[in-house]
């Protein structure tokens, strides 16, 4: 049997990955009909909104959707129809950390993957290539295959591929247009290799052949967890060094620059920060920790666990620095927090360091004013309620104000905390900010974003993560 020529793709899950990934496939492959399905009607409606008020913010995404939607890109809640008509199905559903039961707090919750797989098994009436796009523990494809094969109808077959996604939020469209690599894992049988080639041909419409890597299924699944673990490990390493810098008078920018010049280390992903956030790093490392423990490799588990522990330490260390610097108490003090998203150029707040810092400030009974250019108000209230379950929403709302500009946030405050690296925070009129703040006026830069010397000349007392010199 020759590889199937893919003409109809269905993507189950219209989230941060399914939406942008399959929108780009539709744009680059006008001969393929791409239908993205989701059970969440509000989300699908937003993808279909006439004024392109899409459910997620990603630079360049609206442009892609404008070109392809209605041509060969469709969004729908009719999951069964999407499955039935497709010859290739991406499973791009959420795989959050389990909240209860075996492996709670570490293992990935594979319930959504299993439900989507069972749905495919239940409604498919022709052969399908099923592609695991979600990030999953090693050997999940085997469980999917067992479910699908146990339910396949006569004359139909299912081939399972692993095709993890490496896009980063905020740069998703650029990453998808020009990926470092596309990874496809398959069984090494002839059928597995044929299915792999069918998917490789889809990417071949815009990705150079040498960037499409084909490997075994389990290597592909593990590579995704490994890539995130190694990236997060770099940040925890530089953040650990930032603590040494603060204690010794060394400067983390200079240290990162010096070590990054070594071509074996390289300069990227060495920016000290208030801690990494996002829906993936912590979840995927905990997943790796769980996998290692399940495989009776406790030393390996402890090694990776430390990356997350260092991140927790960095976040609480930063909160403590703010309290210590503001004369050991922030009770009743007014603090502006600039940035709520987990990184710049996204409205996503999942595991954002900002949430932990604000939770700490609320526990100290400070008043906090938040500004973020992209995060919705309702999301902020939800995140803070979940982060501080000992406080009622009413109490939180008495202590927290959400405003619509950085200048407004900083008015009459004793301190400004930069929690997300939005470019606009660098370009605020800091002279005006200073004039309108209580004195002494403190700035805490958790993102190495502002020119500390310039701010000091204006009169601010500046504390920057990873810099020995203070105030
Ligand atoms: N967010 C990222 O930047 C990123 C990058 C690479 C990989 N990943 C991985 O990709 C996966 C998806 O992540 P995401 O951020 O897009 O999640 P998300 O929560 O934004 O989207 C998942 C969507 O799947 C839908 N869904 C769940 N079960 C369904 C079902 N049975 N039928 C139809 N729809 C269903 C949900 O309603 C939701 O809209 C995760 O495994 C994640 O780890 C995420
Ligand atoms: O030098 C750095 C780089 C990043 N960060 C922080 O690290 C977090 C994650 O950033 P980034 O990796 O850019 O964004 P994500 O969207 O979480 O992307 C990661 O997680 C995705 C989901 O698995 C993968 O697909 C991507 O390859 C991987 O980079 C954010 O809070 C950043 O502010 C730093 O503190 N310092």
From TrEMBL:
- Keyword Oxidoreductase recorded: yes
Q: Name one GO molecular function term.
A: UDP-glucose 6-dehydrogenase activity
**Residue numbers binding NAD(+):** 13-18, 38, 43, 93-97, 134-135, 169, 280-283, 350
Coiled-coil segments on the chain, per record? none
By its UniProt entry, which Pfam families does this protein fall under?
UDPG_MGDP_dh (PF00984), UDPG_MGDP_dh_C (PF03720), UDPG_MGDP_dh_N (PF03721)
Its domain of life reads Eukaryota
Report the pathway entry: Nucleotide-sugar biosynthesis; UDP-alpha-D-glucuronate biosynthesis; UDP-alpha-D-glucuronate from UDP-alpha-D-glucose: step 1/1
Enzyme's top EC category: oxidoreductase
Q: Which residues form the UDP-glucose/GDP-mannose dehydrogenase C-terminal domain?
A: 336-452
| InterPro entries per UniProt | 6-PGluconate_DH-like_C_sf, NAD(P)-bd_dom_sf, UDP-Glc/GDP-Man, UDP-Glc/GDP-Man_DH_C, UDP-Glc/GDP-Man_DH_C_sf, UDP-Glc/GDP-Man_DH_dimer, UDP-Glc/GDP-Man_DH_N, UDPglc_DH_euk
Q: What is this protein called?
A: UDP-glucose 6-dehydrogenase
């Amino acid at each position: 049997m020759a590889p199937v020529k893919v003409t109809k793709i269905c993507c189950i899950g219209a989230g941060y990955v399914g939406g942008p990934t399959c929108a780009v496939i539709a744009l680059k492959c006008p001969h393929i009909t791409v239908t993205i399905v989701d059970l969440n009607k509000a989300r699908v409606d937003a993808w279909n909104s006439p004024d392109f008020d899409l459910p997620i913010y990603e630079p360049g995404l609206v442009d892609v959707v404008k070109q392809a939607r209605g041509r060969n890109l469709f969004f729908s809640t009719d999951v069964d129809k999407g499955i039935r008509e497709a010859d290739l199905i991406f499973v791009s559903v959420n795989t959050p950390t389990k909240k209860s039961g075996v492996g709670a707090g570490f293992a990935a919750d594979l319930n959504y993957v299993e439900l989507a797989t069972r749905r495919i098994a239940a409604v498919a009436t022709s052969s399908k290539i099923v592609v695991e796009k979600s990030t999953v523990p090693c050997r999940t494809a085997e469980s999917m295959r067992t479910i699908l094969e146990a339910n396949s109808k006569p004359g139909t077959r299912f081939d399972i591929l692993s095709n993890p996604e490496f896009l980063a939020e905020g740069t998703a469209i650029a990453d998808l247009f020009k990926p470092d690599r596309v990874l496809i894992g398959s069984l090494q049988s002839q059928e597995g290799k044929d299915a792999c080639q069918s998917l490789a041909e889809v990417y071949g419409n815009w990705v150079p052949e040498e960037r499409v890597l084909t490997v075994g299924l389990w290597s592909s699944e593990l590579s995704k967890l490994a890539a995130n673990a190694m990236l997060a490990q770099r940040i925890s390493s530089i953040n650990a060094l930032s603590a040494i810098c603060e204690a010794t008078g060394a400067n983390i920018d200079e240290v990162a620059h010096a070590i990054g010049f070594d071509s074996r280390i390289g300069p990227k992903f060495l920016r000290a920060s208030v801690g990494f956030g996002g829906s993936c790093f912590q979840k995927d490392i905990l997943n790796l920790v769980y996998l290692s423990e399940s495989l009776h490799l406790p030393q390996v588990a402890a090694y990776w666990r430390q990356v997350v522990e260092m991140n927790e330490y960095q976040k609480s260390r930063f909160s403590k620095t703010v309290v210590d610097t503001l004369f050991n108490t922030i009770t009743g003090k007014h603090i502006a927090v600039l940035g709520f998203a987990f990184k710049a150029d996204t409205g996503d707040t999942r595991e954002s360091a900002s949430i932990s810092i604000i939770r700490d400030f609320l526990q100290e009974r400070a008043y906090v004013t938040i500004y973020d250019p992209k995060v919705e108000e309702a999301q902020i209230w939800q995140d803070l309620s979940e982060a501080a379950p000992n406080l009622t929403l009413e109490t939180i709302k008495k202590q927290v104000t959400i405003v619509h500009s950085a200048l407004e946030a900083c008015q009459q405050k004793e301190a400004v905390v930069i929690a997300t690296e939005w470019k606009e925070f660098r370009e605020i009129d800091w002279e005006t900010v200073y004039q309108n703040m209580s004195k002494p006026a403190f700035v805490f830069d958790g993102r190495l974003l502002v020119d500390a010397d310039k701010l000091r000349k204006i009169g601010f007392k500046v504390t920057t993560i990873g810099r020995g010199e203070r105030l």
